[in-house]
Amino acid sequence: MYLPLKPVCIRPRKDRTNLIHIQYCYNNEQKTLLDTRISIPIDCWDKKNLCITPNLPPSFGDSKKLNKSLQEQIRLVENVIAFARQKGVKEIGIFTKEYYSPGLDIFNLNDLVKKREQEKKQKQNPKINLDFFFQIDDYIESKIKKVCKDMPRIYRNMKDHLLEFQAFRGKVITFDCLDLTFYENLVDFLSFEYVQKRRKERIVGLKTNTIGKTIKQLRTFLRNRIRKRIIPPIDMDGWTILEEEVDAIYLTWNEIKLIQKVDLSGHPHLEDYRKDFVLGCLTGLRFSDFARLDEHDMRDDMLYKKQEKSDHWVVIPLRTTAVKILKNRFEKNIPVLTNAEFNRHIKTIGNLAGLNSLIKHSYKKGNKDIIQVKPKYSWITSHTCRRSFCTNEFLAGTPVELIMKISGHKSVKDFYKYIRITPEEAGNKIKELWIKRGEMAVLEK
Fold this sequence. Notes:
This protein is of the alpha+beta class. The protein has three domains: 5-124, no CATH class; 132-227, no CATH class; 253-436, Orthogonal Bundle (hpI Integrase, Chain A). It contains 16 helices and ten strands. Strands 1-2-3 form a three-stranded antiparallel sheet. The termini are far apart.
């Protein structure tokens, strides 16, 4: 079936780049432009063959991959149009404009249409659904496209905690019942009664910081509903966000070298995990960022990366080892690793490297101090990379503001949460500064 669809590049911007659109002429007089979210320089569009030319600068992407994406998007538009015709939609152009997006899952289009129709009916009806959990679902849906992919999981954890609390108290949660007593009872439940899911052994109660995250997200949700005038103002004075300093390790350069040089000939499947761990320690990137690097992120031995969590660009200078690891990764086209696999295997590597000194950590659960003693390798996670980078650079004397430019921290307070040094290291650091300033005999001069 012929469809009047074609990619076009017809709206140049002031910076001499163009957004590529898919033009859909749905009758002799009407047409619409569908955004592909692909941007290129003006002179990199082949008007005759309607494709991106091979001379596309690497910073804009790979021309072959982008042309393939264009063709896939055209097929996706064809499927949307076919769906509209099957459903007897009268204004197919308007329908396509409303529902098409490059990331659309065509198999979920029917559900998406039903949901949008329900939302439209609800907007036409002045009566608002004030069901507490309906509003939470609506809030989560409104945030999905605006936040990093991990945030919806945090929102859903909040919802799960509240559902469990509702079942425990045997009373429906409504906006009217949200007061200081509700807050205190919720914190008590999460601290002493909540049974953690998907655990091999029965664990009751959440850590203080986990409870703090739930309260933080609940307050943010409620303020959003208040700003939208869905609910009246709620007095949340006294709804403290619980927080405690987290015990977490970092690895010194000598310990990172042990991991880099440990013999893995008997465990070849661990090699890629070892390289990625060392890369994380050399760049300070979060796992979600360094696990998804591609060749276009590296230019002139510098790494240009938009952080997934903060949506913030960082430019990271690369040490020789990091360059070698990245080039090897790009040449081998190593698949994306999962965080769970990474955390499991890097502990094995740390064990093989001999990082087995006993480390004692503690955390609060309710009013109790929970103490755990485990070998150092057992405490290693993907986040150890980021803490190690920040701490080692701090100990080396790199100015904090420069480290933050690379790590992407927006506040000094958040940055210092990552610094993990022992009292002995702090004492030695101060002694070095005294020697450098010639102040070891300050009172004897």
